[in-house]
Amino acid sequence: MAPLKSRHGDAKHPDSDDNSVRAYEAAPDLSNHEDAVFGGTNADGPNYRNVGWMAAAVLMMKAQVGLGVLSLPATFHTLGLIPGLIVLVVIAVLWTSYEMGKFKHRHPEVYSIADVGQVVLGKPGRYICAGVYWLWMTTVAGSALLSISIAFNAMSLHGTCTAVFVAVATIIVFLLASIQTLDKVAWITWAGALSLVVSLFLVTIAVGVTDRPAAAPATGPFDKDFRITSAPTFAAAMSAVSQLSFAYAGTPAYLSIMSEMKDSRLYTRSLLLCNGFTTVLYIVVGTVVYYYCGQYVASPALGSAGPLIKRIAYGLGLPALIVSGILYTHVPAKWIFLSALKGTKDLNNNTPKHWIVWFSCVAGCVLFSYVIASAIPVFSGLVGLVGALFGTFLCTIVTSSLWFYDNWGKSDGSLSRKLIFGLNCAIFVLGWFVTVAGTYGSIEDIIIGYAANGGTRPWACDDNSNST
Q1: Which CATH number do you get for residue 145?
Q2: Residue 466 belongs to some domain of the structure
Q3: 159, 278, 302, 434: which sits with the fewest CB atoms below 10 Å from its CB?
Q4: Which domain holds residue 86?
Q5: In contact, 403 and 203? CB cutoff 8 Å
Q6: Eight-state DSSP code of residue 397
Q7: Could you give the CA distance from residue 420 to residue 350 in angstroms, rounded to a whole number?
Q8: What average pLDDT does the chain have?
Q9: What is the DSSP string of 291-325?
Q10: 456 in any annotated domain
Q11: Which helix (H) or strand (E) holds 177?
Q12: Is residue 14 part of a domain?
């Protein structure tokens, strides 16, 4: 397919040449041209291409930081601080979504990972990638619903049955995820991102000024068992690696965010801002909370500073948890919606069919997420399982395959080309290893969580804010 041309006739993206970011800072607004994904705009219909580069960066940050950061201190205890930080940085470098942005530039008709599968492998690739992509997004939304129920329990001191809180979270996410365009969701995302950062730094400061971790014995000596290095079992180590993978597994949402940008040529700028901020936040919060809490760290981490701070932190962080559910429900629902109405007049017009299909897509996604949140109510295990089974596959195996698809047979024999080829081979192999081994470790983690005293049960009324 030929590159998508703007209304100015320029089919070449600045990312494909040596121009600096400044060379296209004043790029024209591309929101009104005939789009390869959404078609033409309609004054009476939704404007899908209206997300600025800064708003795109915040959407990406929220896709990344939503849940993964809450499990980081616990993974550092499993792996040891130094190995944990090394694995974190390696994942930050290798789980990159830069190549995904380049692929979108070369194939503007792509909206999601499912479309990527169609381009690379035809219909079989579309079916495989579509299944993994949809399951990934909806299970992440399920993790968000579980986190929201934990927040409700923490704030209300278990005011009612946890199953009720999960249902309430599902209704809230459905209503807000039904907002049709990402530029409007971005306004909510700003509040969510800010609330999570404030909440995390509150916990970070609180654990630093207290005499002992909240979960430590109230009196007498105690051992934090702070580990610079550790010797975990294979299953425990791979579960921890999977949780770290989850912390950087927002990549599958980036294609959809990029598709709704006013000027997708500024994607790289948004990506650099997102990944830089995310990595610094992860290192600071994860290290400080683990240093002061050690083995008494909670997962999610917001419960590490005692009952009062936990209630305040969850209250501050609740908007962020809700936004995670919104984003990871909205994006897969939008993909189904586009697949159902693409090429019809109903896509860009507010007809009865348009709204019926849209609300049905959102409802279907959030109901599946509700089942996931209710059936696997073990936070760390669910995060690890989702990260290993789906996130790693999409962020490494699929991403490296994109480079092979567009560059196979084009080698110029240069050292840099060989190094890039070798790097993508390594990412591909590592992705398969973490997917298989991490899934095994996460399942073991879930089994242990069910068996432990105070462990939660599916569709139960137990207080999950005290057993995670």
Answers
A1: 1.20.1740.10
A2: no
A3: 159
A4: 50-451
A5: no
A6: I
A7: 46
A8: 82
A9: HHHGGG--SSGGGTT-HHHHHHHHHHHHHHHHHHH
A10: no
A11: helix 162-177
A12: no
Separation CA 333–CA 40 (nearest Å): 21
For residue range 358-379, what is the model confidence (pLDDT) as tens digits?
Answer: 999 999 999 999 998 888 766 5
Instruction: Name the one residue in this structure whose structure tokens are 């999570």.
Output: 196
CB atoms within 10 A of CB 338: 21
Two structure tokens written together for 448: 């242990």
Residue 202: CB atoms within 10 A of its CB come to 17
What number is the average pLDDT over the span 134-153? 88
d(Cα 286, Cα 75) in Å, to the nearest integer? 9
Is residue 243 a contact partner of residue 85, using CB atoms and an 8 Å limit? no
What is the Cα 461 distance to its own chain's centre?
28
Question: What's the whole-model pTM score?
Answer: 0.81
Three-state SS at 297: coil
Whether the pLDDT of residue 312 is over 70: the answer is: yes
CA 98, CA 84: separation in Å to the nearest integer? 24
- The DSSP secondary structure of 374-390, one letter per residue, reads HH---HHHHHHHHIIII
Instruction: Note every long-range contact of 1-9, with CB atoms under 8 Å and residues 24 or more positions apart, other chains counting.
Output: 1/36, 1/107, 1/108, 1/109, 3/105, 3/106, 3/108, 4/35, 4/36, 4/108, 4/109, 5/33, 6/30, 6/33, 7/32, 7/33
Beta strands, E only, 234-300: none
Tokens of 8: 């100015």
